[in-house]
Amino acid sequence: MTYTARLRVWRGDAAGGALTDYEVDANEGEVVLDILHRLQATQTPDLAVRWNCKAGKCGSCSAEINGRPRLLCMTRMSVFEPGEVLTVTPMRTFPVIRDLVTDVSFNYAKAREIPSFTPPPDLGPGEYRMKQADVGRSQEFRKCIECFLCQDTCHVVRDHEENKPAFAGPRYLMRVAELEMHPLDVADRVAEVQDEHGLGLCNITKCCTDVCPEGIKITDNALIPMKERVADDRYDPLVWLGRTILRRGSRQARE
Amino acid sequence: MTAATRGVEAPGRAEVGARTLRTDRWWLPPAATTVGLLIFVVYATVRAFQQQYFFADERYLTPFYSPCVSLGCASEPGSAHFGMFLPDHPLLPYAAISLPFLLAFRLTCYYYRKAYYRSFWLAPAACAVPEPHATYTGETRFPLILQNVHRYVFYIAVIVSVINTYDAIVAFRHPTDGFVVGIGNLVLLVNVVLLWCYTLSCHSCRHVMGGRLAHFSKHPVRYRIWTWISALNTRHATFAWITLGTLVATDLYVLLVASGTITDLRLVG
User: Fold this and answer.
1) Residue (of A184, A202, A185) closest to A193 by Cα position
2) Is B2's pLDDT higher than 70?
């Protein structure tokens, strides 16, 4: 079945822009990215839209459809009524470059601020031995496709530009959690996540989890466990007393 | 920073001209949460200070009065299992040693935090809907930094759950009729089982029981417990709402039996 889809696409750049109305043919089984490609092919050859795999694995085509952060390639047209007007805008947390393409370099800057995997200094190459039970938790976080939808929807930076220097965002707080939960990582990730990456700014309202196209339980499995570890190290006198008596450091106590 | 230069209207971002473009009923979940929580708070406050109809059939003690430790509990012989030492005052609930901690347990709960930050504080009311506040410091400062006491109120909540369990068990014994089973017993039992589900599915419990470990393989028992609690934890929000309902239902049942409005149906004895 072919029908006419009604679209309002944001066109413009950092200097300004507006929502522009279009009517495009749509076929059964298509996704929003298909419609944008047809729009590009038939009416607006200069429409800028970032995409790559069209299979929900590269994380390139992040945008906002009817105000909700989504992947263009994973949003089926069938979830909307045929007569419904679809409003497509770029992600609204990052600076726009042109049309639906944003400058996501904020995320790469945050990624570089996280010290890489730090194994024990006396552990040589080829000596890494881990059991599945020890790495199961952090494997969930490896599913991340870096679409930055969680970063886009997080109100800490979406609604407060001034928080960007202090807050890494859910994707990179999850990266710190991944390293902290790694059985062979010995860096002090707990102090780092609170002091350098702004975990305390997160108020666990779970929008990051809600928009994750990979279904990663970012809040329950990464952010809250990290908040609990911060509570261990900073706000729990019983834990402090136990560690003092047993003369164990933060990392040793978790062994 | 003015409203025009913050948030989605900050310089450099796409000038869309609308604070949100969501077309669904995004306001419904926070509105429903507000109504649900307010109903519970009003009901619980009225009942906690009513100091009447809290003990029925000489064996059913409502969870809002457990443990009953006020001198006022003497008005219902058999309701005080742990002594009576608090003064009988209209502004002091009979279970004043447990209620503040249970309130704190729910206030600092990771699920309820999400619920009231969204519904009462609108930070944010819904995903990708701008919040109304000019500045935001999250949980980095007083008073919200106190959310970190959650694990301590969890420990106390476990003790109160043990007391609720004791109440549910001793309710099977009538002072004159011996072992009996009534509808009220089943109500108390269901309530206490669900209270345990809510308490044990807590994120702090998950962390304390095993989540803080770096090597699960070195602690197989704690790993197994963590696995069970993790399964429960996925339904923490559901248990949070169900237990608000069962607490009200249990209390209402005791209230209605104690006031003589309904009679407890005995199944055994």
Assistant:
1) A202
2) no
